[in-house]
Design a protein that fits this description.
Elements: H1 33-37, H2 53-65, H3 67-73, H4 77-86, H5 101-107, H6 117-130
Helix pairs in contact: 2-6
């Protein structure tokens, strides 16, 4: 959701990379400005623009905007994020990492979650409104 190359129209960097589904914590639903400020100096995120300043605010606003969609489906923000990846034409799977078994519970629903056209439009609007990410915001049929 955060960085899709417009040329491919696929979410290769928005979500398509192993660690990018949850954007290394940003889309987990548990990340905050306080958590970003507390990252140790040896954590690469402490030096990455996505985790500081205005970009962090935009990214967190996007994660927050996914909550109503998650609630509507009785699931989590991470599940919505992964389901968004799976909604793109040509995407047949999503590789999502977890540091512990409990994290799997946060996104496992994505396997059966079918986002509606309205959901996809709401997500695209949230991406545009928050200014988070680059590239196409909505899968094309």
């Amino acid at each position: 959701m955060l960085d899709t190359p417009a040329k491919t129209n696929l979410p290769t960097k928005r979500f398509g990379h192993t660690d990018m589904h949850m954007q290394s914590g940003l889309l987990s639903g548990r990340f905050s400005v306080e958590r970003a400020r507390a990252l140790p100096a040896d954590d690469w995120r402490s030096r990455n623009p996505d985790y500081t300043g205005e970009k962090l605010e935009k990214n967190l606003a996007l994660a927050e905007s996914l909550k109503p969609i998650a609630e509507k489906h009785g699931t989590t923000v991470p599940a919505v994020a992964v389901a968004w990846t799976l909604a793109w034409p040509g995407v047949t799977g999503a590789i999502v990492g977890a540091r512990n078994p409990g994290q799997v519970d946060g996104w496992i629903d994505a396997a059966s979650l079918e986002l509606t056209k309205d959901d996809l439009a709401d997500i695209a609007k949230a991406i545009e409104t928050t200014g988070a990410g680059t590239g196409p915001a909505m899968p094309q049929a």
